[in-house]
């Protein structure tokens, strides 16, 4: 089973990578770009009997820092 | 308009971050995890009249390295 996990910074957490992208897009002449936030996408192949609880545990223990990051699990 | 851009390594390109995640999940006792690939997610707020061509240009010029990465643009 294919799983996509999206890890994003919580609102209010400073995002230097997003700021750098925003600045660079402006320098390249792209207009109308507002807020930019950079996050992570983790694509995993897991056993079909992997339950939501296990996926949640993976995120909490390893993939996301829940102090500053949110995560979303999507079964592809 | 909110845009999500997913940047992933092309198949066949070595992914040390994905390998490290795979290894760490194994060490933590999670079983049945197969291939893991790490990618990027970029969330942007752009002007409503931004066309697909401009978004494509942003990806090609800055956000993705098209030699080794694929990108997918999603209007949220």
UniProtKB/TrEMBL annotation, chains A, B:
GO cellular component: cytoplasm
Keywords per UniProt: ATP-binding, Cytoplasm, Ligase, Nucleotide-binding, Purine biosynthesis
Alphabetical list of InterPro entries matching this protein: PurS (IPR003850), PurS-like_sf (IPR036604)
Catalyzed chemical reaction(s): N(2)-formyl-N(1)-(5-phospho-beta-D-ribosyl)glycinamide + L-glutamine + ATP + H2O = 2-formamido-N(1)-(5-O-phospho-beta-D-ribosyl)acetamidine + L-glutamate + ADP + phosphate + H(+)
Residues spanning the membrane: none
Pfam families, per database record: PurS
GO terms assigned for molecular function: ATP binding; phosphoribosylformylglycinamidine synthase activity
The enzyme's E.C. designation: 6.3.5.3
Record-given protein name: Phosphoribosylformylglycinamidine synthase subunit PurS
Taxonomic classification: Bacteria, Pseudomonadati, Pseudomonadota, Alphaproteobacteria, Sphingomonadales
């Amino acid at each position: 089973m294919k799983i996509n996990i999206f890890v994003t910074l919580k609102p209010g957490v400073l995002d230097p990578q997003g700021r750098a992208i925003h600045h660079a897009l402006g320098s390249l002449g792209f207009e109308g770009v507002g807020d930019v936030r950079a996050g992570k996408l983790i694509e995993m192949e897991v056993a079909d009997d992997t339950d939501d609880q296990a996926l949640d545990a993976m995120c909490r223990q390893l993939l996301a820092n829940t102090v500053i990051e949110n995560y979303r699990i999507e079964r592809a």
